[in-house]
Amino acid sequence: MNFSKMPKIELHCHLDGSVRPETIIDIAKKDGIRIPSFDTEEIKEELIAPLNCESLDEYLKRFSIPNLVMQSKENLKRITYELYEDAAKENVKYMEVRFAPLLHTKMGLSIEEIILSVIEGMKEAEENFDIYGNIILSCMRTMAVESAFEVVEKGKEFLGKGVVAIDLCASEEEGFCREFIEPIRLAKEYGFRVTIHAGETGIGKNVLEAVKWLGAERIGHGVFIHDCVEAYNIVKQKQVVLEMCPTSNVQTKAVNQISDHPVYDFHRDGIKVTVNTDNRTVSNTTMTKECDLVWNEFAMSDVEYKQIYMNSVQASFANEKVKEKLKTYSLDI
């Protein structure tokens, strides 16, 4: 199967982990920003996490350089546009991009300006390429809970205008959901959909709590439900969709190697899984690469590809009109 030509859906992609290295260099030169090198290959060494990362925390260190160049409206718009352009070139038909607005306030931008700039980049790409998109606002678990309220309050005016959902991300500690019950409850009242990073490190119980306490409709990663029977059962019973990111999961040591990844076992057991990049630059990957990796490793069929494609369409936070259009692409599978 030629995955570069297959229609694809991506539901879990971080903006700051998917910046073109060449763009980082170009912006740094233009704006006078100090970065470790202006050589493309050398900057890639700084941006791309190795497969033998020791942990999620080591992986997350790769985000510091991209954030240096993501502090202006012009740069945020450009970087978003380029991400959608890159995705469209490999036949991704719909992509939800997530980012944490509070990481981009260092030069004085307001949260509203930051969100609008990202939306504008996405909208311009939609006009120029055969792709649809939506934006997910991430709240950082490493910041005070008040910061999550701020993102929810400032982000609500963009619901229906490009923003669709709220997320919690960053380092994963056991029991993190308890702190964020109130801001996520408020987000749901405003109309945000909910996807939560959980079970990426060795804490399957976090997935259980994300579903029970936060009302998560989707889970980012969710690998470690295999170590928590209650989490596994609630995901399967409620048909909570897992946004799985195979290469990233190897890098962060959620699994030791791709053959250990539970994506196929979950799929065979009736859990709804999707395949995603997580971070195109940090993981040095594309949707084409991720699909090649998974389907070749587990000898999956064309029928299974179509099943997972349709899982992604149904689980997306797109409106019904876009979903109907995305379903038509399945005829090409």
From TrEMBL:
Tagged with keyword Metal-binding: yes
Binding positions for substrate per the UniProt entry: H14, D16
Domain Adenosine deaminase: from-to ranges: 7-326
Catalytic reaction equation(s): 2'-deoxyadenosine + H2O + H(+) = 2'-deoxyinosine + NH4(+); adenosine + H2O + H(+) = inosine + NH4(+)
EC number: 3.5.4.4
Binding, Zn(2+): H12, H14, H197, D278
Gene3D superfamilies assigned to the protein according to its UniProt record, in alphabetical order: Metal-dependent hydrolases
UniProt remark on cofactor binding: Binds 1 zinc ion per subunit.
CDD domains assigned to the protein according to its UniProt record, in alphabetical order: ADA
Family that this chain belongs to: Belongs to the metallo-dependent hydrolases superfamily. Adenosine and AMP deaminases family. Adenosine deaminase subfamily.
The UniProt record lists the keyword Lipid metabolism: no
Listed name of the protein: Adenosine deaminase
Cofactor(s) recorded in Swiss-Prot or TrEMBL: Zn(2+)
Residues marked Important for catalytic activity (site): H221
InterPro entries registered for this protein in UniProt: A_deaminase, A_deaminase_dom, Ado/ade_deaminase, Metal_Hydrolase
Residue numbers annotated as active site: E200
Role played: Catalyzes the hydrolytic deamination of adenosine and 2-deoxyadenosine.
